[in-house]
Amino acid sequence: MLPVNPPARLLMGPGPIDADPRVLRALSTPLVGQYDPWMTSTMNDTQTLYRQVFGTANVATALVDGTSRAGIEAVLVSLLAPGDRVLVPVFGRFGHLLAEIAGRAGAEVHTIETAWGQVFPTSAIEDAILATRPKVLAVVQGDTSTTMNQPLDELGAICERHGVLLYTDATASIGGNPLEVDAWGIDAVSVGLQKCLGGPSGSAPVTLSPRATAVLDGRRSVEAGIREPGDEVLDEPIRSNYLDLAMILDYWGPRRLNHHTEAASMLYAAHECARILLEEGRDAVVARHELAGRAMLTGVQELGLQVFGDVAHKMHNVVAVRIPDVVDGDAVRGAMLADHGIEIGTSFGPLRGRVWRIGTMGYNARKDAVVTTLSALEQVLRRGGFPVPQGGGVDAALDAYAAAAAAAPASSAVVA
Amino acid sequence: MLPVNPPARLLMGPGPIDADPRVLRALSTPLVGQYDPWMTSTMNDTQTLYRQVFGTANVATALVDGTSRAGIEAVLVSLLAPGDRVLVPVFGRFGHLLAEIAGRAGAEVHTIETAWGQVFPTSAIEDAILATRPKVLAVVQGDTSTTMNQPLDELGAICERHGVLLYTDATASIGGNPLEVDAWGIDAVSVGLQKCLGGPSGSAPVTLSPRATAVLDGRRSVEAGIREPGDEVLDEPIRSNYLDLAMILDYWGPRRLNHHTEAASMLYAAHECARILLEEGRDAVVARHELAGRAMLTGVQELGLQVFGDVAHKMHNVVAVRIPDVVDGDAVRGAMLADHGIEIGTSFGPLRGRVWRIGTMGYNARKDAVVTTLSALEQVLRRGGFPVPQGGGVDAALDAYAAAAAAAPASSAVVA
Question: Any idea what DSSP says for residue B242?
Fold first, then answer.
């Protein structure tokens, strides 16, 4: 068997996207033992970095060693004891996932649903809170299945008023869209690296407020084999050992209580993802995604394509394009990949085969990536017999970039 | 915050160990989309490689995206429904861990225990099977906390005779010691990369026999959001979504049903770990670990140190050295790290502070690594005031290597 040797790809789907080359280099950093002073110091540094990424002072900020889905399950299984009520507003595939994971954790799951392509008015969520009185409100921020970005900025205050913990899965949205954990009063957040953070899948940064940490404190159970006199042992511990955030945080905390062996390579990647984001600046990164997303949006529109969903509420970093009835969507995706080396996606469930999802995320939220993708899409549609205006998409995107450059100070990072 | 920049380290503890430089390079390979034909083909190749590593024809062979502990929990939570009986022979910290994880999965856990430093006679395990009639026998192969290697070669036949599924956690032992999944009749195995496979923590290869897969077939529940007409939905699905092996195997199987986003960088690492092992040959790799382990064992003995436990049953790849009463064990470990750049470990629970654990694993199961470690240990003990024979450890190790070279054909990989 030969070494892995992937083809050249520009990943413009809903994620994963091309990792920043700096992150790829960080991945190849040599390993160090898990209790080496350098390693524990690097873990502490990584926590400091992610507090800044999240906009939080939460002590309980760490990485879960798994994909973003592991982070979701870690939060839900750790906060929700069997029988606890959780409310999940579902506006796409990943809302269903939160409900599914909470259900498997033994929670009493209540959902409200809206049509794919819409978000919830805040009042609808508050009404549902009043009707169900949950312990936790679990809501996706950006659901890539529909591209929608649920407004969260008012939910923290509502949840606090009603004694509810607010958890959000911000995997798809973080970096590309505003997320202010402390200012918005969010109690728990989990994310992944493989979208706007420009890294590989496989590490899930999480953060928990003091209110959420207090729940863990009541559910801590130190495992046999490393337990010491005075350690907590519960008859009904958190249902997962691997995803028990109380134990994970004891490993990341001053006690350094052994749990798993930290996935050092993924830690290095996560560390570099955060450094890259903070170097550019959180607001500048969001602005870069907003511009790239706007350029892509106007580009596909000027190619004569329709956009799916409530565009006013879509994430900056991904757009869902309706596949015209006369076009074979999979053939277009196949030609984009085979002839141009560019990946775009379709979606799930009711949107499977009905939309293409085109991402402008992380390292790929760049002018040249946007323009190259629109240029390729024009060629593929043309060759497939679908009439498209020559250069319509490319011109629209370049106009968006030119307008942003003209409007911004010359030194602004927005037009970098 | 500066980029990660670890100090030079030779990792001769119980793991993680220095990753093979080839694996570090593989980690920095560019990403590809999860449904790219190249990616799915590379996932298939990785399954083929791990079938060879495990010595199995099991179709159900894949990676769990998490550390070795995630692999353990995936197997146990997927095979054990709440109330199912499991028998765990405990001979160290990781036996306690299997019991803990099974208990959190809701299983009825029965344990038998033996003193740390011993293994179980096969007959004792069969007696316990007869007494408890478990659905699953869950046993660690090599428990790094004690260095013991439980003989498994007769357990498969016993389990089959009694209708029991045999699961083993071979994280610490695989590669360094024989493991024959099909020939020994083992139904489920999980491992990690960070010991004798020479990779980083963060990916857990697993394999399941057809008998074990049949259990999953009865517990499959396709999640909302991607469910299609005819798909299975259970009222009581597997308690974890992230670690549901039925879903993970549907993602790795021909249906490619979306679950997590594969951690591509860790997949690349796992792929390269297997390639390296198979290139050298499974038997040759075990022989290399046997020789390195024997050289280290005689080396520490010739330095005048005592070895802990039943040496006839220890793993090849790690030795537990009793810390002499007059020696400050942590000071020795500190000086090894600070002055020589070499990490050795201590242990857990009853052995914490009582032994040093010295590993000779994977990329570090090499003559120069063994000799360098023994040379450093001699110096550190001497400077600490503990009398050691000059060159006693180094000579013993080199004699072991010379004897092996003299006994083996000139071209043998054993002395490479």
Answer: T
Interchain pair B225, A96: CB under 8 A: yes
Place of tokens 């390729």: A376
| CB nearest to B4's CB, from A94, A194, A271 | A271
3.90.1150.10, 3.40.50.300, 2.60.40.10, 2.50.20.10: which CATH number matches A282-415? 3.90.1150.10
Chain A residue closest in CA terms to B82: A239
**Cα–Cα nearest to B356, from B175, B144, B141, B114:** B144
From B375's Cα to the closest Cα of chain A, the distance in A is 21
Q: What is the mean pLDDT of each run of 10 residues along chain B (416 residues)?
A: 97 97 98 96 98 98 98 98 98 97 98 98 98 98 97 98 98 98 98 98 98 96 83 90 98 94 98 98 98 98 98 98 96 98 93 96 98 98 97 98 88 50
How far is the CA of A374 from the CAs of A129, A130, A292, B165, B403, in angstroms? 43, 46, 12, 55, 67
> Which pTM was predicted?
0.97
CB nearest B1 (choices: A6, A69, A275): A275
The ipTM estimated for the assembled molecules is 0.97
Determine the residue of chain B that is closest to A50 in CA distance: B1
**Fold of the B20-277 domain:** Aspartate Aminotransferase; domain 2 (3.40.640)
Question: CB within 8 A of A126, min separation 6: which ones?
Answer: A158, A162
CA dist A285 and A291 (Å) reads: 10
Residue of B nearest to A224 (CA): B96
- C-alpha to C-alpha distance for B123 and A212, rounded to whole angstroms: 49
User: Domain extents for chain A?
Assistant: 20-277, 282-415
Q: Which residues of B touch A242 (CB under 8 A)?
A: 66-67, 69-70, 72-73, 101, 243
The predicted structure's pLDDT at residue B416: 43
